[in-house]
Amino acid sequence: MSINIDEFRKLIDGILNQKIEVFHSRVDSAINTIIAQMEEVKDPGELSTYDIPRDFEQKLIKKEPAREEKIDSIHKYIKNIASASNQLNLINSFLEGINHFCTRAALFLLREDKMVGWKGSGFSTQGGGISDEDVKKVFFSLSANTIFKHVLEKRKSYSGNPTAQPDDHLIYSRLGGDRPDKIFVTPFFVKGKPQAIVYTDSFGGKIIGEKEIEIISTIGEMSLDLLPLRQKLLAKVKTREYVEEEEEKIPDFEPYPTSLETFSDEKTVHSIKANDPERLARVIINDIILYNKTVVEDGRVNGNLFSVLKDTILQAKELYLNKFSDMAAFERQLIETLAKGDKNALKGYRFETL
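Above: the chain sequence. Below: its structure as tokens.
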């Protein structure tokens, strides 16, 4: 049987065409797959999300306190400052609040031609060779060209380089020797005049909360200005409570002024029996203790009550003498109530009867 050449050619062409179609189909399929994969590459999907280890996340959060945390801290310290019953507690709360937003904080008072340390906060924990109490021994002459002098003269805050003024090295040599990363110094106003300097610094990358410190400083200034008024009001309340307790024991009292905070205020009256010098002396001495609690406690321990309360005790004596001439009751209360029976703690006071 012979094969026709044309038929053979048609057979071969049919087989080739079939294979070409299969090839084209595979090529089209491959192209479609590539296009689909390219679309997937364009969509970031899981590439746009990531997980941070929890311990590392906590470190990031602690690096810079949240705004709510700052507000809560400011609120706490402002309440402590505003509710302080005496200057010592007020300044302690003030410095504690400021130190929350820096590494170290200190208050320096203007005394004639120098700045004298009043107290520090954060120095003891920093370990720089000086404690919070040691700050009291530090002073700077205003003849030296330091940032303290600059801030007082300009009456505005300074933030930045620790050695902005030629004599700033004196500050760090007396505050432990270490040079901080940054400082923030602001004047502290009393009755509208700059009477002190608030010094703050930072170490180890800690951020100084300048705005927070300025807020607390402003509240401290206002509270210090209002403190005498608050003490007068509190004196009337506390002494009235004391007298009311006494009235339950002995009747027939008549008004008499006794507040130590208002010696010359004749409108301030307390019910004290007219012929009872012991009672008047006891109320007066209790007022001294009420408004000088820390000073009285320290004076008892150190045996220098009269030295640290000289002006107050002499004012109290004048108040007593306005009503009675016999000093026995007053001096007896000085020893028994103020000095807790230790007459030696009143060394320097000239007793007239005891």
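The two ends are 159 Å apart (CA to CA).
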